[in-house]
What does this fold into?
Amino acid sequence: MATSQGTWGYRDRFGDAFARTYFRRFGPGVASSVGLGTYLGDPTDDVDAGYRESIAAALSAGINHVDTAINYRCQRSERVVGEALREADVDREEVVVATKGGFLPFDGSRPADPAAYVRETFVEPGVVAPEDLAGGGHAIAPGFLDAMLDRSLSNLGVDTIDCYYVHNPETQLRVRSREAVYDRLQAAFETLERRRAAGDIGMYGVATWEAFRVPRGDDAYLSLPEVVARAERAAEAVGVDDVGLGAIQLPFNVAMADAVTVAAHSHPDGEGDLSALEYAQEIGLDAVASATLAQGDLASSLPPEVDAELAGDTPAQRAINFARSAPGVTTALVGTSSPAHVPENVAAGTFEPLGARAFDAVFE
It folds into this structure.
């Protein structure tokens, strides 16, 4: 697993090549503020090869935070991350490895009959109960998460996953009340606290698409303070001394800035409302920005008024540095399926992000 000594050693090895704030505290150590995302791409051998080469190159060049999920590319992304970890010129203790569980994954390729696959692979063997499913393909029930965590450990070929996210829990709001989803999250957290105590994960988090960046009245809304409270109850129920909830993940980029602009989470001291990133910063949760390049849409151009304020030689670098500039963001994830883009993405970290005053001015 990633350790304080290992990640600080990685920082000492590469830090002089980057801007001053490039490495930031994450979990027990530090992580690069540019991270590797593995969501995009078809489940093919050619895409696997691109990811494998890209991840190994980035790990050997100064990026030590890799993010994936069991359902990404039909489990292929997890497996490629594991292969790249073994090929790269890094020690396991130097690299933060994060994955997610929640969506029922296919295996290697998309089946001809997804419904039959789900029934035969998950429902009939008892991995998940039909009443636990939302949308036919999402669950956060304890037994299901236990099984998926075991499979992720195997796919990645590691003994410990540094951060294990409950993936898009707002999906459960399609079939049950908000209070029921909080109850299910608490049960999931109890499971993850036990796995943390067993050494299978370093910490856990919640990765969302909508839940934390929409207004309170939105159907997909989940309250960060309530999620934190449920994690505290879970830790107490399991009998551990500290709370394992350590991170959130949510989209943030120039075109999707809701994580900063939508104040929908009560201040811990009762002093009004905070945005998701402000709340995370206030209570000490690590925050990871996904969709940094809006799945490639921002790689070629940015709004001129924003572009003019950012450092970087290319639009992609400036978009990455916008996400790295947000308050509380530890790491901005960038897709890594193309080896040709690795040097450009790594070099984004050689530029300083915006200061707090300049970042706020963008929204004025």
